[in-house]
């Protein structure tokens, strides 16, 4: 006979018919996991830094392309606001990277930290009542814990593009001076994700009350090996429930168009995404402003384009890396939406935002992009911010 | 010898940035070798300044004017100065001076032509340009097995026979059938008579291979268990076969590693697996029928069968390569053996196996798969094994869908290695039946990445192109291990929920192994984890009460040793009958057993009584912990010294 252990921590039922008695069994209630997610170092505060130029700034061609020249960058246009909450659904974030110290939300009610130097402790209770136990830094759907720490690199790269500390003499400058990032880890260390993980990630993200959601587009295998049509249907239904909830809450979701060197909309997941008006799909351009070779495009469903081919950003472990992909283009649009939120607060309307993004008032028109994006435009944050402020 | 040592000191010192050029205040820029052309620079300005510089620094140089009428010069030079040093020296005296930069096409398309296969783009392991994998995140450039580039050298040969020892294969699959091994004499088309052993090899009608499954069989024909039809009913073997030789360039489906190869389908895994006897028969069949490579994407913890080992020894004598998957438990094979891959370290009648290659799985970002087993002593190399698209039996695919699926596992990494070994044997016939040499080449031509160091013997991921082009390279010298005493005593825990972290540091070391003279863990309650300096998990020790063993090699100068035990609950159980597993779970069952239709549910008897509150929690018993008495390490500069010496 084969025995299978059940995951069932609570014993609620009164046994009516008892069979064999007296066999001693042991179950593990809790065991520390091998992977160590560090506690956020920023609870101790961030070290004060001298104002020094960021050494990698001259490699950040993306700043100039989105209109954030050396003159524009210090203006209030890109100030942002620490009250703006941006959820990053990806591989987590290395929240202890020195170049984003203080930018990733630390949920203080869930921790005890009495004095500097004191260890950060959690109590396995949902102290703030948001439905998540010990969600200290975002939430990790893959491991089921409250520390969304990144070991893969993608999420940290996105976080760096959005929020790397400016003029601290380290690494790069982010697109937003002030913002609060909420990491939700749903992609594992090998870049793999599941329908269940994505659905839970969206559900968890909404509990963290974001103003903008960035969604890293990992392709997910639907329908199992047999590619069963009924299974695909029920999996998509599961995702639809979550996307409906996000849509109803009017939270914009920014997602990369993918790198299949083709059209956006070929996968089942893409087909679901294109139905939502709050989902903003972005393709990537290179230094020359042309769509990068692998990036997907679509004349209707891809809203705009942004730099995403050789972007310098953060890598876990206080390192830096050059990244490629539409996800990093989407990170630029996420920043634009975050800045818009800081400027407009509740007056921000997704439809209006999209109209600005696709028009020449809010982006750079380029003939080369005419068949690649809805409006044939490329993101220009400076123009975009001016346009929405005048509305 | 003394001469070498002197040279060595100088080159090391300059590498560390200790020497300063007195004439220059400009900082010396650092260039990586992939960024610039070594030994060349561009100078723009007064030619005399340049010539004086060359003379005073005794550089042997050739100067060429780049275009007529402009003072731009390209200089090719030899000498002790690095390009960065030259640039720094000359900056103040020139209009500009810079290295000769390398440029690449924007997309890293190889010069080799892409095959016409419909889904080739998704096969990141052949040519990773950063495209979306079939599933998961897009990859990073060149984190692939270099197969597309390898096809510039060879596309395989019909003379190489690879046996897929697995669940059989779908030899009718349109993308596979061209590369399936056929036993010519048994084939009806060649006059083979059904029911007769036409070739006299002892197996009747073995046209495509043979089926040795004995489990769950209702019919036996007498002498030879199994039958002559190795058709795949599970899908696993077909997927592996597709990686080795799904026909490239036929416009459909996927490409395999080999354009031309013969895949022998040997089935021994049925529903519910196979037995050691079946596996013995299967590999014996492959040997008898002249397979050169056996691809084994299977395993268990107890295949230490003498019957099986005796046959692998015969394979070794004939020089047949035995490629084996390292396993998908995410554990360390050095400590918790996995068979047959651990034949790499096993002794049989006092001798090691020289023909066994153990393979772990890596992803499209050049990271080891989380599920992949590893082990610096027992696993040889990594190969692509996450999100691998390959063939799937037509009969098992939903109607109207293409018969291809994506799977992940060391099972998928194994046929990549088998397929690349087949390319080697195609290009160089002297490597056929020369397993030892093939293994040496494959291990010495991997792409070494930080993420792999310490996890496998070669510290890298397979690269087919390098294996084919750098096969003359000799093995790098084994690093020189030095040992010193280091006592770390963490024994006798009687508390609940221990989670202790201790650090061992050997300044200047490149690799560290620690020696446990005492270790007592009770699985699954206690574990010892070893991490590198960044808390990257290198090794897991979960089941051991043996004293006196060496850990895996941890890269860097720091090892974090962590001991954890678990919070457990001990109780007296009662069993009851339930209608289903689900019913048992609803009733608060802790474990459920199933035998036929009967479901037996085990519940906590004490806690289930009225008033029971589930508070009976005990600490882990017998948590004896561990003691480390010495460490062994390789100094960072010692191997660099070896390299320099051999280069000189």
Describe, in plain words, how this protein is organized in 3D.
- The complex is a heterodimer of chains A (391) and B (648).
- Chain A is globular, with a radius of gyration of 22 Å.
- The model of chain A is unreliable at 1-21 (pLDDT under 50).
- Chain A has 8 helices and 13 strands.
- With 391 residues, chain A is α/β, with parallel strands linked by helices.
- In chain A, the strands form 3 sheets. In chain A, strands 4-5-3-6-7-8-9 form a 7-stranded parallel β-sheet, with helices on both faces. Chain A has a two-stranded antiparallel sheet with strand order 10-11.
- Chain A has helices spanning 61-65, 154-163, 195-207, 229-248, 268-273, 326-344, 350-358, 381-390, and strands spanning 2-5, 23-30, 80-90, 139-140, 178-185, 212-215, 253-256, 279-285, 302-307, 309-315, 319-324, 363-365, 377-379.
- In chain A, strand 7 (253-256), helix 5 and strand 8 form a beta-alpha-beta unit.
- By secondary structure, chain B is α+β, with helices and mostly antiparallel strands.
- In chain B, the strands form 8 sheets. In chain B, strands 6-7-5-8-9-12-13 form a 7-stranded parallel β-sheet, with helices on both faces. In chain B, strands 18, 20, 23, 24 and 30 form a 5-stranded antiparallel β-sheet that branches. A 4-stranded antiparallel β-sheet of chain B has the order 2-3-1-4, covered by helices on one side.
- In chain B, helix 6 packs parallel to helix 7.
- Residues 1-24, 105-111 and 639-648 of chain B have low confidence and may be disordered.
- The interface between A and B is large, with 69 and 86 residues.
- Strand 2 (23-30) of chain A pairs antiparallel with strand 26 (567-578) of chain B.
């Amino acid at each position: 006979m084969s025995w299978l252990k059940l995951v069932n921590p609570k014993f609620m039922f009164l046994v009516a018919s008892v069979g064999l008695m007296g066999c001693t069994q042991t179950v593990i209630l809790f065991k520390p996991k091998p992977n160590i997610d560090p506690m956020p170092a920023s609870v101790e505060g961030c070290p004060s830094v001298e104002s020094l130029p960021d050494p990698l700034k001259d490699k950040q061609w993306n700043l100039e392309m989105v209109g954030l020249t050396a003159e524009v960058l210090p203006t209030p246009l890109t100030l942002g606001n620490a009250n703006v909450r941006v959820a990053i659904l990806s591989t987590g974030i290395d929240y202890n990277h020195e170049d984003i110290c203080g930018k990733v939300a630390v949920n203080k009610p869930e921790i005890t930290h009495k004095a500097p130097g004191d260890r950060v402790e959690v109590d396995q209770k949902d102290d703030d009542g948001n439905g998540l136990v010990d969600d200290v830094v975002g939430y990790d759907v893959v491991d089921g814990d409250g520390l969304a720490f990144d070991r893969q690199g993608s999420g940290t790269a996105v976080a760096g593009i959005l929020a790397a500390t400016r003029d601290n003499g380290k690494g790069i400058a982010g697109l937003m001076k002030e913002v609060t990032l909420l990491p939700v880890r749903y992609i594992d260390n090998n870049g793999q994700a599941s329908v269940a993980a994505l659905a839970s990630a969206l559900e968890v993200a909404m509990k963290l009350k974001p103003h903008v959601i960035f969604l890293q587009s990992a392709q997910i295998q639907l329908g199992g090996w047999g590619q069963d049509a009924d299974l695909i249907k029920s999996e998509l239904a599961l995702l639809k429930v979550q996307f409906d909830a996000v849509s109803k809450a009017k939270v914009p979701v920014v997602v990369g168009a993918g790198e299949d060197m083709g059209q956006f909309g070929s996968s089942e997941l893409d087909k679901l995404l294109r139905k939502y008006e709050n989902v903003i799909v972005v393709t990537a351009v290179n230094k020359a402003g042309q769509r990068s070779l692998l990036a997907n495009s679509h004349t209707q469903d891809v809203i705009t384009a942004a730099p995403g081919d050789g972007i310098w950003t953060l890598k876990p472990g206080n390192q830096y890396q050059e990244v490629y992909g539409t996800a990093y283009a989407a990170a630029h649009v996420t920043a634009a939406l975050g800045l818009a939120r800081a400027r407009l607060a509740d007056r921000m309307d997704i439809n209006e935002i999209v109209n600005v993004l696709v028009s020449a008032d809010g982006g750079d028109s380029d003939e080369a992009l005419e068949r690649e994006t809805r409006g044939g435009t490329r993101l220009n944050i400076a123009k975009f911010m001016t346009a929405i402020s005048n509305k | 010898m003394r001469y070498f040592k002197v040279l060595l000191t100088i080159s090391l010192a300059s590498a560390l940035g200790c020497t300063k050029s007195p004439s220059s205040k400009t900082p010396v820029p650092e260039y990586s070798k992939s960024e610039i052309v070594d030994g060349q620079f561009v100078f723009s300005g007064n030619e005399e300044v340049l010539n004086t510089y060359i003379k005073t620094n005794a550089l042997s140089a050739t100067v060429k004017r780049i275009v007529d009428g402009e003072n731009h010069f390209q200089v090719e030079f030899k000498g002790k100065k690095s390009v960065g040093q030259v640039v720094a020296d000359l900056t103040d005296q020139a209009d500009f001076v810079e290295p000769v930069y390398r440029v690449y096409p924007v997309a890293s398309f190889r010069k080799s032509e892409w095959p016409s296969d419909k889904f080739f783009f998704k096969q990141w392991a052949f040519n990773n340009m950063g495209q979306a994998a079939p599933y998961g995140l897009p990859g990073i450039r060149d984190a692939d097995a270099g197969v597309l580039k390898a096809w510039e050298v060879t596309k395989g040969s019909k003379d190489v026979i690879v046996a897929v020892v697995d669940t059989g294969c779908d030899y009718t699959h349109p993308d596979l059938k061209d590369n399936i091994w056929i036993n010519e004499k048994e084939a009806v088309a060649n006059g083979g008579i059904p029911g007769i052993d036409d070739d006299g090899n002892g197996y009747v009608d073995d046209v495509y291979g043979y089926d040795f499954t004995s489990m769950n069989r209702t019919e036996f024909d007498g002498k030879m268990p199994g039958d002559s039809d190795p058709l795949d009913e599970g899908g696993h073997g077909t997927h592996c076969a597709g990686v080795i030789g799904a026909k490239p360039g036929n416009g459909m489906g996927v490409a395999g590693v080999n354009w031309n190869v013969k895949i022998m389908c040997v089935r021994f895994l049925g529903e519910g697996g196979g037995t050691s006897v079946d596996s013995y028969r299967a590999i014996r069949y492959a040997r008898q029928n002249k397979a050169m490579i056996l691809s084994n994407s299977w395993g268990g913890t107890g295949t230490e069968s003498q019957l099986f080992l005796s046959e692998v020894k015969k394979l070794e004598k004939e020089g047949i390569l035995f490629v084996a998957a390292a396993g998908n438990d995410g554990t360390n094979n050095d400590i918790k053996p996995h068979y047959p891959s651990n034949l790499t370290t096993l002794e049989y009648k006092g001798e090691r196996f020289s023909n066994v290659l153990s393979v772990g799985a890596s992803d499209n970002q050049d990271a080891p798969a989380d599920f992949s087993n590893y082990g610096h002593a027992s696993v040889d190399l990594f190969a692509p094994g996450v999100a691998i698209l390959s063939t799937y039996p037509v009969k098992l695919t939903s109607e109207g869908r293409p018969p291809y699926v994506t799977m992940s596992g060391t099972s998928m990494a194994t046929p990549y290695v088998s397929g690349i070994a087949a390319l080697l044997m195609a290009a160089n016939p002297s490597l056929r039946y020369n397993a030892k040499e093939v293994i040496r080449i494959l291990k010495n031509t991997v792409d070494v990445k930080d993420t792999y160091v310490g996890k496998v013997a070669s510290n890298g991921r397979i690269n087919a192109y390098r294996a084919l082009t750098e096969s003359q390279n000799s093995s790098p010298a084994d690093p020189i291990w030095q040992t010193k005493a280091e006592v770390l005593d963490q024994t006798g825990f009687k508390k609940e929920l221990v989670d202790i972290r201790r650090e061992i540091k050997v300044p200047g070391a490149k690799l560290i192994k620690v020696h446990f003279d005492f270790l007592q863990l009770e699985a699954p309650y206690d574990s010892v984890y070893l991490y590198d300096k960044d808390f990257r998990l290198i090794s897991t020790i979960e089941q051991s009460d043996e004293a006196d063993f060496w850990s895996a090699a941890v890269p860097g100068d720091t090892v974090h040793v962590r001991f954890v035990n678990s919070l457990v609950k001990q109780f007296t159980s009662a069993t009851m009958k339930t209608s289903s597993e689900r019913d048992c779970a609803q009733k608060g069952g802790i474990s459920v057993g199933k035998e036929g239709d009967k479901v037996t549910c085990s519940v906590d008897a004490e806690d289930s009584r009225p008033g029971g509150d589930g508070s009976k929690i005990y600490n882990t018993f017998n948590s004896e912990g561990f003691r480390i008495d010495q460490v062994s390490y390789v100094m960072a500069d010692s191997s660099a010294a070896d390299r320099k010496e051999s280069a000189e």
